Amino acid sequence: MAAESAAPPAARNKPSLAKALAGLKVPPAWFAETAVSWETARPWQEARLEVRRLLGLSTQAGNRQAVKLTCLYRDKKDIGNGHEYPMYLFLGGETAWAAQAYEEFVQREPERNTHAYMDLVGCYRHFGEYAKAAETLRRALASLPTDQWRIALEADVYNAWGDLAADVGDKAQARQHYAKSASLYPKSKQPYGRHLLARRVAKVQAKLDMLEMGAIEPGKLTDGRHRGSSLGYTGPLDVTVTVRGGRIADIAVQHTEKIHQNAPEIIPRRIVEAQSLKIDAITGATVTSQAIVDAAFQALKKARRK
């Protein structure tokens, strides 16, 4: 599959993971200068809520405070099995550091940690390391739990594999993996959240549809405001696309996302600049990024001239 080739075209403009890891200093230079007011004598169950609050600010200062607070609890070994340490590095935008931490975590805890593998895939995609991402997805499939969540998690893995194939332009593989994901979600035996499975299938179907919609040709869109919606990480996400002169002029996003790393501002700007839905997601806010693209796609389907 194209996602496993040594240097696919999609990787050419990506930052180098090797260089990022070579220059990685743990803790980083900003660590000593970042003040944390939280009383670390309080238990991690309370501190993790503060970490998520800080990440929800979607600012560099908030991210750094969240990362430092997480590290302080890791150092005093009060952070559960440790899976939240790389997760909050990832959400805090410390992608190379997160990749290193996730690699160590899944090596230490290889079973029943599908979401850790998925976040590691997100790190690899950020750096254009598609072969490593594909291998990590294989490991995720091999380590699926045997409980009621197995089918839904398997569907998640195939959904991510479709994203990976789409990244490198392998539409055939993307279709295959998305179709597999869409077929699995309705079969999930998960104990709760089943009412959301139909929405997850719809999101995968939207990705299948988007494979056929490339760059948006100037003059081929109807002027006016067109609306679309999707499901973000925490709830509904609505998009209004303004078309002028047959081109996308503006995209407004309404959402309830808590941790979004400014995706509601950055993703619309990228779509307008590229006049295309084929743009990079925000690392650490992949679900929100994809929801914005999906909602924009729903709006643009209404805007396309027959």
Can you put this structure into words, describing what you see?
The chain contains twelve helices and three strands; from the N terminus they run H-H-H-H-H-H-H-H-H-H-E-E-E-H-H. The chain is mainly α. It has a domain at 224-303: Sufe protein. Chain: A. Strands 1-2-3 form a three-stranded antiparallel sheet. 44% of the residues are buried.
CATH topology of one domain, by name, is Sufe protein. Chain: A
**Ends apart, CA distance between termini:** 34 Å
Radius of gyration: 20 Å
CATH class bucket of one domain: Alpha Beta
The biggest sheet amounts to: 3 strands, antiparallel
Binned, the helix content reads 40-55%
Write the layout of secondary structure elements.
Blueprint: H1 17-22, H2 44-56, H3 60-75, H4 84-91, H5 95-108, H6 114-126, H7 130-142, H8 150-167, H9 171-184, H10 197-210, E1 224-231, E2 236-244, E3 247-254, H11 263-274, H12 286-303
Antiparallel strand pairs: 1-2, 2-3
Helix pairs in contact: 2-3, 3-4, 4-5, 5-6, 6-7, 6-8, 7-8, 8-9, 9-10, 10-12, 11-12
Which characteristics define this entry?
globular; three-stranded antiparallel sheet; Sufe protein. Chain: A; 12 helices; mainly alpha; 306 residues; 52% helix
Task: Tell me briefly what this model is.
The protein has helices at residues 17-22, 44-56, 60-75, 84-91, 95-108, 114-126, 130-142, 150-167, 171-184, 197-210, 263-274, 286-303, and strands at residues 224-231, 236-244, 247-254.
